[in-house]
Amino acid sequence: MTAQTPKTVKQKPINIRALAAKCCYSVIDQGRSLGDELPKQQDKVAAKDKGLLQEICYGVLRYLPELEHDVRGLMQKPLTGKQRVFHFLLLVGVYQIKYMRIPDHAAVSETVAATDALKNRHMKSLINGVLRNFVRASENNNQNNSQEILPDALKYNHPGWFIKKVQQGYPEQWQQILSANQQKPPMWLRANQLHHTSADYQNLLATAEISISSIEPLSHAIELSRPCDVTKLPGFEQGWISVQDGAAQQAARLLDCQRGDIVLDCCAAPGGKTCHILEQTPDIASMTAIDVEASRLVRVEENLTRLGLTAQVITADAANSKTWWQGELFDRILLDAPCSGTGVIRRHPDIKWLRKASDIDALVKLQQQILKETWSLLKPGGTLLYATCSVLSEENSEQIKYFIENNSDAKLLNIDCAENESNETIGWQLLPGEKNMDGFYYAKLLKIKT
Ligand SMILES: C[S@@+](CC[C@H](N)C(=O)[O-])C[C@H]1O[C@@H](n2cnc3c(N)ncnc32)[C@H](O)[C@@H]1O
Fold first, then answer.
1. Residue 415: its pLDDT value, please?
2. Residues 6+ apart with CB under 8 A from 11
3. CA of residue 439 to ligand 1 center, whole Å
4. If we measure between CA atoms, which residue out of 319, 450, 445 comes closest to residue 382?
5. Which of 267, 277, 317, when mutated, tests ligand 1's pocket best, judged by the most ligand atoms within 8 Å of its CB?
6. Strands 312-315 and 286-291: what pairing?
7. Ligand 1 close to Cβ of residue 368 (< 6 A)
8. Which pTM does this prediction carry?
């Protein structure tokens, strides 16, 4: 018998820049969410490269108008149709040169090499030429110190409609908000009170040499000095700790559930706030967690399991209780409403490009419907906490003002918190970056006993 020579399987080259270009193409040209697309591309690379891929994708989406402007100035005509992915590859290249600590020559050569992975070698010389010209042009610009006057969308790297809304809503703070949206977000933790106090968990972090930059005293949220992989956090798998922004951690505190309460979290996925409420008040009578998206409820189940908590999890439309409500009124309701997400742009830069001005009216209507429906499920004497991660007053103070004006049994409760310094008179508007937290809105409503 003759020995058979094993067939050589040709491995497809993995190139981080090519994957980043594909990811940005899916988000911008195909309207897909970064939260869905990035993990798909990250699955293809080694653990050590996931961070780099993430940094490039986030960076391109943070600085999209500016990078497109840079590239436009160096091209005779834009790349269209099947060549669009190479348009994003150019943005990937320019982002690295402008904003990353990768030497220019390495950024150019790695990006040019991506043309092999994207199976279009004809693009090699174009990508190479444009990026080299960009390096040369930026060296000259540095010397000239040119002060080009830029339109706002380009200057602030946000869509024009959103800049106008923020300018109108926050005449004093609009630049601060836009600038906070461009920052890399911090990592906040929530110690599971069923296992450790916040102080005890801080000691565990110190032993693990993970440093803390601040603590939010009202909710006990812990901010890390630097984001780290969750697997490095003491007891993550055992459910001692969760990752949750400090602003989101205000919900459980403000809802203030009591022993024996029947609680509804009506827009619950992925379950951060459901779990926090259960950790804070394990002696409530029941927690019903509903969400309209079954696929997102899988995350709720996973979080409950990891943290050793129990809730009744139901896929249902909160705007139509006939399909799921079992006839018992609730003492406390958390309505963390579907919203524009304009308070969490620093965590999801794709929101700037996927969210359109025309979406806002539909969101406001949906919030109004869910609010009306869930209010009918609240016991007289019970409280409903309305929350969004938006900075737009239509979704926040105006929404609640309209609700109170049209429901005589609704009374706005004071949100007793020292930080309530914003101009909002109805509810509590946290602006992005305030205390290093996400932008959030809270309003607490009491159902008056009649
Ligand atoms: C802001 S997120 C909730 C985040 C969650 N409370 C947490 O802390 O992890 C809003 C959620 O509302 C859900 N949603 C949207 N429309 C809904 C509806 N009509 N009924 C129930 N849930 C809905 C979305 O699927 C999404 O998961």
1. 87
2. none
3. 17
4. 445
5. 267
6. parallel
7. no
8. 0.94
Q: Is 334 in the pocket of ligand 1 (CB under 6 A)?
A: no
Residue 317 near ligand 1, beta carbon < 6 Å: yes
With a 6 A CB cut-off, is 299 part of the ligand 1 pocket? no
Task: Kindly report the average pLDDT of the chain as a whole number.
Answer: 94
The one catalytic residue in 23, 267, 275, 389 is 389
- Which amino acid appears at position 71 of this protein? V
381: helix, coil or strand?
A: strand
* pLDDT reported for residue 4: 58
Q: Which two tokens stand for residue 130?
A: 């444009």
Which of these, 221, 297, 306, 304, lies nearest to 266 by C-alpha position? 297
Q: How far is the CA of 236 from the centre of ligand 1 (A)?
A: 25
Torsion region of 125: left, alpha or beta (phi above 0 gives left; psi -120 to 50 gives alpha): alpha
Distance of alpha carbon 96 from alpha carbon 88, whole angstroms: 12
For a substitution probing ligand 1, which of 36, 255, 291, 295 has the most ligand atoms within 8 Å of its CB?
291
Give me ligand 1 centre to Cα 366, in Å. 11
Nearest in space to 193 (alpha carbons), one of 278, 96, 297: 278
**Which amino acid is present at 282?**
P
3-state secondary structure 34-73: HHHHHHHHHCCCCHHHHHHHHHHHHHHHHCHHHHHHHHHC
Mean pLDDT to the nearest integer, 214-242: 95
Helix, strand, or coil here: 330?
A: strand
Q: Report how far ligand 1's centroid is from the alpha carbon of 52 (Å).
A: 30
Look up residue 202 and give its two tokens.
Answer: 């801080």
Beta bridge partners of 383: 332, 446
Please tell me the predicted confidence (pLDDT) of residue 2.
47
Q: How far apart are CA 67 and CA 157, in angstroms?
A: 9
